[in-house]
């Protein structure tokens, strides 16, 4: 059975970037995703850009899930965003703790994502379907996998509906995590997050920052290609396609793609694993 699909974007900095993203979006919309999500910078750094991109996607008639990051935020500012999204008819959110911006001392009214989820529920009842984050390889700031699992349980108790994972390349690790989640009594659907490999330096930088492991054999192969962009793209596509095939065979309910505002890498993956629709 074809898993549900969702695609993540970051808000562009320019009108030209918005126009390019509109083209990307139109191509990915042909895959009939459950939703597009739009990221939200640390401390609300991209608030206006996120609002603009979310509004455009919604106006085009596509289901959209804005990210909400609570670090550095107040209940008043989050409540204002919730009211705005509800007024548009948006029904889904991705609720995250996020990072405190460099130089900012005040963490705001929320410490953890479960507090944000609880606030959304108290403010908006069951209007929004709330996605939260999960970490198959453990959140980089969690002292242990057990503590990290407890954090996911707290988000469920606060009212989360489902969880999207940090991207990963170790399928066995994801499956182990999924089994642990189920065994611990957490019933949230766990949706794997997938990152297409197109730029090794960028991927290594992101992975080092967020704690996503690039297996040694993959890292060494990618590094050996140097500046050979085509070889990196081809090898990366093979690795991630194999990863996706295993996940589909394991019956995951959905797959979430971190698109980096590009259409081709994700569309090629969908075709390679036999779930893409012809353009």
Tell me the number of strands. Answer: 8
Q: What does the main sheet amount to?
A: 8 strands, parallel, barrel
Q: For the record, what CATH class applies?
A: Alpha Beta
If you average the pLDDT, what whole number results?
A: 93
Low-confidence stretches: none
- Return the CATH topology: TIM Barrel
Structural class: alpha/beta
Short structural description:
With 279 residues, the chain is an alpha/beta fold. It has helices at 15-29, 47-59, 75-88, 113-124, 145-158, 171-183, 200-210, 216-224, 229-249, 264-272; strands spanning 4-9, 35-38, 64-69, 92-96, 129-134, 162-167, 190-194, 254-258.
SSE layout and pairing:
Elements: E1 4-9, H1 15-29, E2 35-38, H2 47-59, E3 64-69, H3 75-88, E4 92-96, H4 113-124, E5 129-134, H5 145-158, E6 162-167, H6 171-183, E7 190-194, H7 200-210, H8 216-224, H9 229-249, E8 254-258, H10 264-272
Parallel strand pairs: 1-2, 1-8, 2-3, 3-4, 4-5, 5-6, 6-7, 7-8
Helix pairs in contact: 3-4, 4-5, 9-10
Can you tag this structure with a few keywords?
279 residues, alpha/beta, TIM Barrel, eight-stranded parallel beta barrel, 10 helices, 8 strands
How would you describe the overall organization of this protein?
With 279 residues, this protein is an alpha/beta fold. The protein has one domain: TIM Barrel (Alpha-Beta Barrel). Helices cover 47% and strands 15% of the residues. It contains ten helices and eight strands. It has helices spanning 15-29, 47-59, 75-88, 113-124, 145-158, 171-183, 200-210, 216-224, 229-249, 264-272; strands spanning 4-9, 35-38, 64-69, 92-96, 129-134, 162-167, 190-194, 254-258. An eight-stranded parallel β-barrel has the order 1-2-3-4-5-6-7-8, surrounded by four helices. It is globular, with a radius of gyration of 18 Å.
């Amino acid at each position: 059975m074809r898993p549900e699909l969702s695609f993540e974007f970051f808000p562009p900095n320019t009108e030209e970037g918005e126009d390019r993203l509109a083209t990307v979006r139109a191509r990915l919309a042909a895959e009939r995703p459950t939703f597009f999500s739009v990221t939200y910078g640390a401390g609300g750094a991209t608030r206006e850009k996120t609002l603009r991109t979310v509004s455009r996607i919604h106006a085009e008639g596509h289901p959209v899930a804005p990210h909400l990051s609570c670090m550095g935020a107040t209940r008043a500012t989050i409540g204002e965003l919730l009211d705005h999204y509800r007024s548009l008819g948006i029904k889904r959110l991705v609720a995250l703790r996020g990072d405190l911006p460099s130089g900012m001392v005040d963490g705001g009214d929320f410490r953890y994502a479960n507090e944000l989820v609880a606030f959304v529920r108290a403010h908006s009842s069951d209007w929004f379907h709330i996605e939260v984050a999960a970490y198959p390889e453990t959140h980089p700031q969690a002292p242990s996998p057990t503590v990290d699992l407890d954090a996911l349980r707290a988000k469920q108790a606060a009212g989360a509906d489902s969880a999207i994972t940090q991207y990963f390349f170790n399928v066995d690790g994801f499956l182990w995590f999924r089994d642990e989640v189920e065994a611990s009594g957490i019933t949230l659907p766990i949706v794997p997050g997938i990152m297409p490999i197109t730029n090794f330096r960028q991927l290594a930088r992101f992975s080092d920052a967020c704690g996503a492991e690039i297996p040694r054999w993959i890292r060494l192969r990618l590094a050996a290609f140097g500046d050979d962009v085509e070889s990196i793209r081809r090898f990366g596509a093979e690795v991630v396609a194999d990863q996706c095939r295993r996940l589909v065979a394991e019956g995951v309910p959905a797959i979430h793609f971190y698109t980096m505002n590009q259409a081709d890498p994700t569309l090629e993956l969908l075709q390679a694993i036999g779930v893409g629709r012809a353009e």
